[in-house]
Write a sequence for this structure.
């Protein structure tokens, strides 16, 4: 049935700025399907960006996607240096995983999970 995450779509106020922020982080080019949908293709998945609207207001109130990383604190510090803000963590869960959440400059939550 469900196999793996193929893509993530963030709903943001500024599609171009968000797409370029992520493109810079992954060192890839921004691509456009149309004027309302930009995306980047990373080695792991596609990350898309669409304008916020009444049905998809974006922000941290919805789903948080967690990314597997080697060192949560190091990645968190790197994202904060790029303009993200700490939302919670890092902390060690009851199962022993280190996790944290940052909010990117466009209001989207990014979960981090690892050591």
């Amino acid at each position: 049935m469900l196999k793996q995450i193929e893509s993530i779509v963030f709903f943001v106020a500024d599609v171009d700025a968000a797409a370029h922020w992520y493109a810079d982080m992954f060192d890839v080019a921004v691509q456009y399907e149309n004027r309302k949908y930009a995306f980047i293709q990373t080695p792991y998945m596609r990350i898309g960006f669409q304008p916020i609207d009444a049905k998809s207001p974006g922000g941290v109130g919805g789903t948080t996607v967690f990314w597997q990383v080697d060192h949560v604190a190091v990645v968190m510090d790197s994202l904060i240096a790029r303009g993200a803000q700490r939302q919670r963590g890092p902390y060690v869960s009851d199962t022993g995983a280190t996790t944290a959440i940052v909010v990117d400059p466009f209001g989207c939550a990014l979960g981090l999970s690892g050591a």
DSSP finds two helices and eight strands in the chain. The beta strands are 7-12, 31-34, 37-41, 46-51, 65-69, 85-92, 98-103, 109-114. The chain has a mean pLDDT of 90.
